[in-house]
Each structure stands twice: as structure tokens, then as C-alpha cells.
Design goal:
Helices cover 38% and strands 19% of the residues. By secondary structure, it is of the alpha+beta class. It has 3 domains: 217 residues, Heat Shock Protein 90; 141 residues, Ribosomal Protein S5, domain 2 (2-Layer Sandwich), CATH 3.30.230; 228 residues, Four Helix Bundle (Hemerythrin (Met), subunit A), CATH 1.20.120. The protein has a 9-stranded mixed sheet, covered by helices on one side. A 5-stranded mixed sheet has the order 10-11-14-12-13, sandwiched between helices. It has a 4-stranded mixed sheet with strand order 18-17-20-19. Bound molecules: adenosine-5'-triphosphate (ATP).
């Protein structure tokens, strides 16, 4: 194989799936293809400007980085050309033949599952491939900055693409960067009209920092975007619409921002900040890498979106930080160890959190959107960011036995007489938690309980936090004493029921269950159920143990069985004292019931079924 031949390649399977959808899509808002291509062109110009800091010859006397849009009615083509970094042969194959971003991969999976994925296209960009919505053939001609070779990539969608050396004419014309020639489908010919192009660029790409030149078939090329770094402008000049557009173009987003933070820090270090919180959740929020996407600029030059400018628990925040005093030639090591960046990170993090606090106060609707989409991420900060833990706790909103989106401040305002702790239960669904027997004593006293169902909840709650001097306590741990809190809803029939003899009953059950539990105790938290399981007061919460053991990250400890002395099943144990087999059956039933109420299986389901049958049949026989 030589470099002079045309070589055919197949698309990665996900790309073929995506293209199939693009080609057959009935999605009406095809305009976004232009935004995607212009934004790729702008990224290419950013990369060139960055590489040229170390190698000024890459730009040299050549064309400054810019983007041109060239309609050609006779040929039926629309060309998007940039004088950016360009791609060499292998880059064309890799970048325009596969999907690298995991977010897009997840997106394609969603598309495959959805019956009609067209709504998803509008909600999440799909980059370069969206051009196949409007074009039936695409030719890409590219020259990497500083290289002699120029390459052509051609595809009509379908299974694959071809890569070949560019023709002499093409090579002469493309001195640096990339030309993307779209052979428009018949129903997409409107994109050859200059007013259409201008409309779309103004709507989606006005904030692109490089000049976007419209090259009409007649007349002179003219710039159609304002090409200003919006974050450098003063707040008073800008409208909500300006910000919304900036968000969409900087974050490649389709939703509206739920929070906008724009300010300039002056002092020891000067920098401009323009940050947004999205109102919807992206697909890659729970990537193990937990990477943020805030872009670092230095004096208007894009440096990287990989500088971790905010802690991982704020990775959903999008936008730009533009420093006046950092050096332009920041290396990767400098990014990690630069004290000035560390300062900026600290100050901006604090500012984002205080902005969220203000939003919660002044614009609860938008705050709720952020909380609904990103609570599970923000709560990671509760065990990671010791310094800001209190602030994050007051930001947090919870579903509780009293309602939804309750803050701890509201919780504390509603504390009952003698209540000194904040109670919570962790589990996997609100419905299941609501029927959890451990809630009974709290319910009888009108005590509010936080119901926590995000996986992260089992982790941060293990950190033994306090709010307003009140410790947060799990109802599935041992040492809860509800007795000092007066009962507001006494259970008449409970009182009427004679209680079983405490010492005797406990001894009987302990003897039956042996190693299956660490202890058997009388419960103060049960009023209607017979039994429940709790962890020791110093061990981990049972839910955390369950999650860790599912991930094979720790063995489970034996629980403590708590029993309700007034429950008929417990009373029956005492009554059956002389019949060891029956005491065993009843004791195990108390344990197994409690396991089932926790959403677990009894250790030996067959033995459980046999036991249940025996007891039921005895009951039927005596009835
Ligand atoms: N005009 C261009 N110049 C240089 N490289 C490009 C150009 N267009 C695309 N690429 C390369 O192809 C890759 C894939 O582009 P694509 O639009 O599919 O995804 P993306 O740009 O990474 O994602 P997104 O569009 O969401 O930012 C880019 O990351 C880039 O490396």
C-alpha cells in the first residue's frame, strides 16, 4: 500500500448506526449541522493558536486563523473551510471514522434503544456526523499545519469512507487547515442561500472568537459574527439572550442555562469568569474520570479544557476562565502545580457555591432544576470537600417523610420536643423506604426523616456530619433512643396488647438464631412491625455495607435484630418456650421478615418457604 493510492476504510459500528439515523432522520431542525461544523472549525483554530505559541512558524506569514462559509449553487455544494490546525492522514481516519467521546457513545446507545431518536439529536449535538442530515456526499480536504501532504476524505455515509492524496488543485488551494465540502441533498438546498447561512450563524455561532466570513457567489466576503470574547465585555452591555447564546456556543449545549455567573476578579491575579450551570443532565455525568469541562484561556487564547478548574463535584459547570497573568506556554505539569491556578480554582469554587446559595434563595425554580439534575454529583462534595461541607449541606435538598426538596434548615426548624438529632434512612427507592419499619417510632412522634436514595448517599452519610450542631443519624444504626421524644400518635391497640417478657424472649430468640445475628435487642423504633435489623452504633450503615459488598469491596457484618415486644409474633415466641422447634421457626421468621423488608433475600430462601408453610399450616389446623 502506498501513500498515493485511494484506501477504503469502514466506519466503526457506532458511527454506522449514527449515520443510518442521520440519513433516515425526519428531524426537522437540521440547522444544527452548521453549528457543529463551525464549532469544529473554531476548535481547530484554537488548537492552531495554541500550538503556534511554541512554534510561531505554524502561522507565520500564512492566513490568520479564520472560518469561511462558501455556498455554490451551480455545484450544489456548501463548503465550510478553516485555516486551523488541519488533520493528517491518520487523524482523518481516526477522527472521522470513529466516535471517541464516551458521551457520544452513550448517546448512540440511547438512540438505539429509543424508538424515535430524533428528539435526542436536537438535545445533544452529534458533531461532524450531523452533516449527513443535509448532505449525501461529504468531501474533506485537509492539510495539517506545517505539513506538505494534503489529504482527501470522502464518504457517502453508509459503511465507510475513502482516503486519498488530494488533487494538485486542492493541495494548492488548501495551504493550511480543513475544507469540508457538503454535496447537499435536494431538500437541503436552502442552505445555499446567504440569508439562511447568516441566520444560523447569528443564532448559534455569534460567539465564536474567530472571524466567520461568508463568501457569496457575487460580491465581497464579509464577516457575519461579532467574534468577541463575550466574557471580556461588561455585564451591563449583555442581555439574558446574549448569555443564553454564549452558553450554547461555549458548552455546545441545547438547553437553557439554569444559572449564569459572570464576573471579573481583579487584585493579585486578574481573570474573567463566565460560567453556566445547565438545566439538564448530560450523558457522561457519571464517567469514572469525573472530568470537568471549564475552558482555560490566557489573554483570549484557548489553552485547555482539561485543567480541572473546579472540583470534580462541580464537573457539570460549563464555561470559561480567562486569565490575564498566566504564561501562555503552560505545560501539563505547570497546569497541575501552578499556585496561581490553585488560587483561581479555590476562589472560583467558593464563588460558584455562593452563587448556588443565592439562586436557591432568589430563584428556587432554577435552583430546583440544577438540584434535580446534579444532586448526586454535588453530594460527592460532602465527603470530598471538607472545607465547604457545611455550605454544601445547607445547599442540599432532600425528600423526607414531610415532603420534597426540604433543606436541613427547614428540618431543624421543625424539630420535635427533645429531638437533638437529624434522622435519615438510606435505601434504593423512596417507596420502599416509606414502608420501612424503622420509621415507625419516628412516625409515632411526628419526627421528620430524610429518605436518601442516590448511591452516593450511603457514602457521604458515613462521614458522621452535623448540621447546626445536630448530628445526622442513620435509623439503621443501633443506638437510636426515641424515648425522650413524646409520642404524638399513640397506637391504642399496641398499648392493649400485653408485652412479652423481655429477658426470657430475648434469651429464646438468641439461642435459636445463634451466629446469624450479633445481638437481639428490644426496639424503641418499632410500633407496628415485629422486627427490624440494625447495624451496631459504630459500624457502617447497613445500606453502605450492602453497596460495598455488591461491589466486592467488603464483607457484611452480622446485624443486630431488634424486636417489638408487643407484637403477637414476638409474644408467641414466649408462649412457645417449651416447643424448641416452634421457637426456632418463629425466631428465624422474625429475622427473615426483617431481611425482606430491607429488600434482601433470606439467607436460605428454601428453608424460609418451608418454615412459613409449617407455621401457616399449624395456624390453619388450629383455626
Ligand atoms: N475542521 C476540523 N479541523 C480539525 N479537526 C477536526 C475538524 N473537524 C473535526 N475534527 C476532528 O474530528 C474530531 C471529531 O469531530 P466531531 O465533531 O465528531 O466530535 P467533537 O468535535 O470531538 O465533539 P463536539 O462536536 O461535541 O465538540 C474532532 O474532535 C477533531 O479532532
Amino acid at each position: 500500500m502506498t501513500d498515493t493510492a485511494t484506501v477504503s476504510h469502514s466506519f466503526q459500528a457506532e458511527v454506522s448506526e449514527l449515520l443510518h439515523l442521520m440519513v433516515h432522520s425526519v428531524y426537522s431542525e437540521t440547522d444544527i449541522f452548521l453549528r457543529e461544523l463551525v464549532s469544529n472549525a473554531s476548535d481547530a483554530c484554537d488548537k492552531l493558536r495554541y500550538e503556534a505559541i511554541a512554534r510561531p512558524d505554524l502561522i507565520g506569514e500564512g492566513e490568520p486563523p479564520q472560518i469561511r462559509i462558501i455556498p455554490n449553487k451551480a455545484a450544489g455544494t456548501l463548503t465550510i473551510a478553516d485555516s486551523g490546525i488541519g488533520m493528517e492522514r491518520q487523524e482523518l481516519i481516526d477522527h472521522l471514522g470513529t466516535i471517541a467521546r464516551s458521551g457520544t457513545k452513550a448517546f448512540v446507545q440511547k438512540l438505539a434503544e429509543a424508538k424515535d431518536g430524533t428528539g435526542l439529536i436536537g438535545q445533544f449535538g452529534v458533531g461532524f456526523y450531523s452533516a449527513f442530515m443535509v448532505a449525501d456526499r461529504i468531501v474533506v480536504i485537509s492539510r495539517r499545519a506545517g505539513e506538505n501532504d494534503v489529504w482527501t476524505w470522502t464518504s457517502s455515509g453508509g459503511a465507510g469512507f475513502e482516503v486519498a492524496p488530494a488533487s494538485e488543485d486542492d493541495a494548492k488551494r488548501v495551504t493550511r487547515g480543513t475544507e469540508i465540502v457538503l454535496h447537499l441533498k435536494d431538500d437541503a438546498k436552502k442552505y445555499l442561500e446567504t440569508y439562511e447561512i447568516e441566520r444560523i450563524v447569528t443564532a448559534y455561532s455569534d460567539n465564536i472568537q474567530f472571524p466567520i466570513m461568508l463568501v457569496p457567489e457575487e460580491g465581497e466576503p464579509r464577516q457575519i459574527n461579532s467574534a468577541s470574547a463575550l466574557w471580556q465585555r461588561s455585564k451591563s452591555e449583555l442581555t439574558a439572550e446574549d448569555y443564553s447564546k454564549a452558553y450554547k456556543s461555549i458548552a455546545h449545549a441545547f438547553d437553557e442555562p439554569a444559572m449564569t455567573l459572570h464576573y471579573r476578579a481583579e487584585g493579585r491575579y486578574s481573570y474573567a469568569v463566565l460560567l453556566f450551570a445547565p438545566s439538564t443532565k448530560p450523558f457522561d455525568l457519571f464517567e469514572p474520570a469525573r472530568k470537568g469541562k471549564v475552558k482555560l484561556y490566557v489573554r483570549r487564547v484557548f489553552i485547555t479544557d482539561d485543567a480541572d478548574l473546579l472540583p470534580a463535584y462541580l464537573r457539570f459547570i460549563r464555561g470559561v476562565i480567562d486569565s490575564e497573568d498566566l504564561p501562555l506556554n503552560l505545560s501539563r505539569e505547570m497546569l497541575q502545580n501552578n499556585p496561581q491556578l490553585a488560587q483561581i480554582r479555590k476562589a472560583v469554587t467558593t464563588r460558584v457555591i455562593s452563587e448556588l446559595e443565592q439562586l436557591a434563595d432568589k430563584d428556587p425554580d432554577n435552583f430546583d432544576k440544577i438540584w434535580a439534575a446534579f444532586a448526586a454529583v454535588i453530594k460527592e462534595g460532602l465527603y470530598e470537600d471538607f472545607e465547604r461541607r457545611d455550605k454544601l449541606l445547607s445547599l442540599a435538598r432532600f425528600t423526607t417523610t414531610s415532603g420534597e426538596r426540604r433543606s436541613l434548615k427547614q428540618y431543624v426548624e421543625g424539630l420535635k420536643e427533645n429531638q437533638t438529632e437529624i434522622y435519615f434512612l438510606v435505601g434504593d427507592s423512596i417507596e420502599r423506604l416509606k414502608s420501612n419499619p424503622r420509621l415507625e417510632a419516628a412516625k409515632a412522634r411526628g419526627v421528620e426523616v430524610l429518605l436518601l436514595t442516590d448511591p452516593v448517599d450511603a457514602f457521604w452519610t458515613s462521614a458522621r456530619l452535623e448540621f447546626d450542631g445536630k448530628p445526622l443519624k442513620s435509623l439503621s444504626q443501633g443506638d437510636i433512643d426515641f424515648d425522650p421524644i413524646p409520642v404524638t400518635e399513640p397506637k391504642a391497640d399496641d398499648e392493649a396488647q400485653p408485652a412479652a417478657d423481655e429477658a426470657n424472649t430475648i434469651a429464646l430468640i438468641k439461642d435459636s438464631l445463634g451466629e446469624h445475628v450479633t445481638d437481639v435487642k428490644v426496639s424503641t423504633r418499632l410500633t407496628t412491625s415485629a422486627s427490624c435489623l440494625v447495624a451496631g452504633s459504630h459500624g457502617p450503615d447497613r445500606e453502605l455495607e450492602r453497596i460495598l459488598s455488591q461491589q466486592a469491596r467488603g464483607a457484611r457484618t452480622k446485624p443486630i435484630l431488634e424486636i417489638n415486644l408487643r407484637h403477637p409474633l414476638v409474644v408467641a415466641v414466649a408462649k412457645a418456650a417449651a416447643d424448641k422447634a416452634k421457637v426456632d421457626d418463629l425466631s428465624f421468621l422474625l429475622l427473615e421478615q426483617a431481611q425482606i423488608l430491607d429488600g434482601e433475600l433470606p439467607e436460605d430462601p428454601a428453608a424460609f418457604a418451608a418454615r412459613l408453610n409449617r407455621l401457616v399450616l399449624q395456624g390453619v389446623a388450629t383455626a
